[in-house]
């Protein structure tokens, strides 16, 4: 009995150990999965990841890609114009009553089955070079769509960069507000001590507490601005998980690269590389091809054709056969004028008999036919439609030329504006740095005077507020200059995917 109890006790211990091991492993696995999910949920996006994701998922870019695919259809149609057309047709019918036999072309009252088949080949030998112009137009149209897609990608990349930098600006401002609020809280503790010993009046403590409350409100507003900016960026990227979406602060610094290039050099590079100019140039080429195609309608069209047809009918035929027993008969065919003597002649003695239809294959060979040749179509008058089309395309060509000229002027104006904006943003950033240095010295001086009891809390809070605002202004100037610089780099011809921040 004791042995059985010991055995059960040992088994229980073994089971307990095994259970504990399994539970520990399960807990480890569950914890690992949870941490993995948390790590995934807390992923922070870099700027390059945001730009790449937008280029792959943005709806406007996908629409431009579909427009590019549509040009392949246009090219396929243009290629097909050089190839001959090939058509085949076949028909089967059953006729009852009085009908014309398609084989004998005789009217007969009966029921029969008939079939026919046709094969036709056509080829346009010359149509005023319109086929050739259409092929050229398809190539130009594809190139124009590629430039439009490139421009769309540049615009989306710049939009993503601007939204990204807005988030960074709001985060930087939040850090400034939190850092300064920590200083305010320290000042509250210090002021409480000075008020207790009677060095400072109670009003100074209330003034600093009011400043703390105002800063707390500013912090809440800054946090809301960050959330709004993140949601805006997520919407651009088509990311639905707004709650867990966040970006990585990669510590973007100021790089002064404006002085390396003149505005004239940037304008020249923009004219050579920017998609706006390329699109306008291709539109001129398209309008020119449309005009050439319209003028081609003045010229004659030469076409070649070839056709093959055959037919079958299962209706019986009627044929003439000679009587083997009496192969000829004598019949009068006239009289001799003057004598009245009859003129006779021998004729085959035939009779009409019904025979069955020939076999299907034999009829296809016996009843087939071929037709081929050329056709010439000379346009003489079509109600001024061709003339109107030519004039309309001339106007479109002139309009596209003006649009190209306007695009060049707009690009030059935009480059000048971007250059001036970048220059101004750099000066604003440098001025903000100088202002921050001055406000920092003023703040340190005010703090020292306040600690010595030589100034009141209101004057100290005003000095601190100016110092806080100067930090926020520096952040704003910094990210504004970075963005202006990226715009200028795009004009210089640097692809959006290669922008360095």
From TrEMBL:
Magnesium is among the record's keywords: no
Keywords: Cell outer membrane, Coiled coil, Membrane, Transmembrane, Transmembrane beta strand, Transport
Pfam family membership, one: OEP
Gene3D superfamilies in alphabetical order: Outer membrane efflux proteins (OEP)
Compartments reported by the entry: Cell outer membrane
Coiled-coil portions: 263-297
Superkingdom classification of source: Bacteria
Family: Belongs to the outer membrane factor (OMF) (TC 1.B.17) family.
PANTHER family: OUTER MEMBRANE PROTEIN TOLC (PTHR30026)
The protein's name: Transporter
Organism: Winogradskyella haliclonae
């Amino acid at each position: 009995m004791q042995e059985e109890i010991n055995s059960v006790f040992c088994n229980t211990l073994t089971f307990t150990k095994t259970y504990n091991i399994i539970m520990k492993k399960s807990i480890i696995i569950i914890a690992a999965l949870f941490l993995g999910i948390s790590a995934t949920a807390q992923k922070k996006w870099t700027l390059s990841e945001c730009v790449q994701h937008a280029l792959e998922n943005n709806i406007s870019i996908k629409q431009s890609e579909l427009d590019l695919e549509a040009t392949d259809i246009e090219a396929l149609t243009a290629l097909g114009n050089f190839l001959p057309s090939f058509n085949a047709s076949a028909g089967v019918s059953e006729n009852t009553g009085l009908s014309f036999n398609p084989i004998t072309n005789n009217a007969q009252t009966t029921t029969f089955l008939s079939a026919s088949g046709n094969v036709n080949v056509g080829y346009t030998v010359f149509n005023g070079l319109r086929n050739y112009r259409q092929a050229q137009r398809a190539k130009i149209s594809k190139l124009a769509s590629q430039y439009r897609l490139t421009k769309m990608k540049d615009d989306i990349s710049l939009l993503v960069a601007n939204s990204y930098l807005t988030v960074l600006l709001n985060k930087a401002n939040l850090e400034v507000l939190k850092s300064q609020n920590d200083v305010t809280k320290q000042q509250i503790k210090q002021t409480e001590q000075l008020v207790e010993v009677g060095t400072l009046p109670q009003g100074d403590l209330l003034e600093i507490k009011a400043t703390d409350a105002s800063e707390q409100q500013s912090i809440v507003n800054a946090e809301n601005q960050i959330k709004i900016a993140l949601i805006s960026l997520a919407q651009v990227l088509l990311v639905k998980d707004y709650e867990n979406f966040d970006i990585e602060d990669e510590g973007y610094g100021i790089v002064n690269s404006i002085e390396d290039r003149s505005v004239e050099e940037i304008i020249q590079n923009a004219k050579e590389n920017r998609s706006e100019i390329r699109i306008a140039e291709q539109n001129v080429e398209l309008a020119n091809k449309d005009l050439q195609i319209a003028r081609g309608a003045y010229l004659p069209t030469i076409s070649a054709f070839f056709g093959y047809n055959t037919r079958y009918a299962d209706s019986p035929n009627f044929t003439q056969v000679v009587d083997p027993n009496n192969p000829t008969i004598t019949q009068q065919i006239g009289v001799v004028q003057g004598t009245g003597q009859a003129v006779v002649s021998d004729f085959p003695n035939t009779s009409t008999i019904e025979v069955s239809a020939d076999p299907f294959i034999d009829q296809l060979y016996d009843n087939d036919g071929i037709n081929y040749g050329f056709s010439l179509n000379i346009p003489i008058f079509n109600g001024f439609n061709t003339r109107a089309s030519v004039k309309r395309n001339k106007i479109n060509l002139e309009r596209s030329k003006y649009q190209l000229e306007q695009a060049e002027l707009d690009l030059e104006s935009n480059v000048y504006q971007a250059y001036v904006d970048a220059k101004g943003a750099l000066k604003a950033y440098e001025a903000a740095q100088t202002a921050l240095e001055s406000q920092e010295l003023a703040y340190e001086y005010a703090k020292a005077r306040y600690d010595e009891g030589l100034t009141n809390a209101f004057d100290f809070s005003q000095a601190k507020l100016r110092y806080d605002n100067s930090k926020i202004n520096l952040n704003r100037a910094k990210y504004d200059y970075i963005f202006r610089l990226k715009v200028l780099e795009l004009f210089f011809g640097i692809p959006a995917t290669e922008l360095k921040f």
